[in-house]
Amino acid sequence: MGTQPRPALRALLQVWSIGMHFVITGTSLNIRCIQDAVSSTVGKFNGHVDQAITGTGSFIYKDEQIDDYLNYYLPSWYLNTAIGKELSRRARYWLVGRPRFIASFVQYLILHDFQCCHQLLTSYIQAITKFLPTDGRQWEQLEDPMPSSSTDLPAPFDLEK
């Protein structure tokens, strides 16, 4: 037994690596920790790295993916209106890049019964980026006032991780 502490991922990989293939993914995973965990299982079981791929996909440059996702969850009666089409455009602009962003935004819309969608998008963007977008102001004025109890905002995006 070595004296160097190892991540829990190492033990999981030792068990899972017996005749299995797996994908380890996440926005906060450090590739060096993964490589260390995988290499520490080599020779102990059957574990080896067939291929390390760090780009596992996203919504980058894929407007139709975001539109399809929104069409699946948001009511068509809303998305087919001018205000709904503009929400789709704004979501494509602000939430491109990480599926987590669009998924948690849709969750945020569902929690608020699809009310004040543009105000919710603006507050969502401000919560994760600490930046207040102004591109939706004209659309926000067409919505009812957002309840002051609107919570459940995500944690800010930490660029230091």
Gist of the model:
With 161 residues, the chain is an all-alpha fold. It has helices spanning 8-16, 31-39, 63-73, 76-79, 82-94, 99-111, 117-129, 137-140. Mean pLDDT is 75; it is low at 41-49.
Outline the structure in words.
The protein is mainly alpha-helical and 161 residues long. It has helices at residues 8-16, 31-39, 63-73, 76-79, 82-94, 99-111, 117-129, 137-140. The longest helix is centred in the middle third of the chain and has 13 residues, at 82-94. It is elongated and about 60 Å long. The model is unreliable at 41-49 (pLDDT under 50).
> Could you tell me the radius of gyration in angstroms?
21 Å
Give a count of the beta strands, DSSP E runs of length 2 or more.
0
Poorly predicted runs:
41-49
Bin the strand percentage.
under 5%
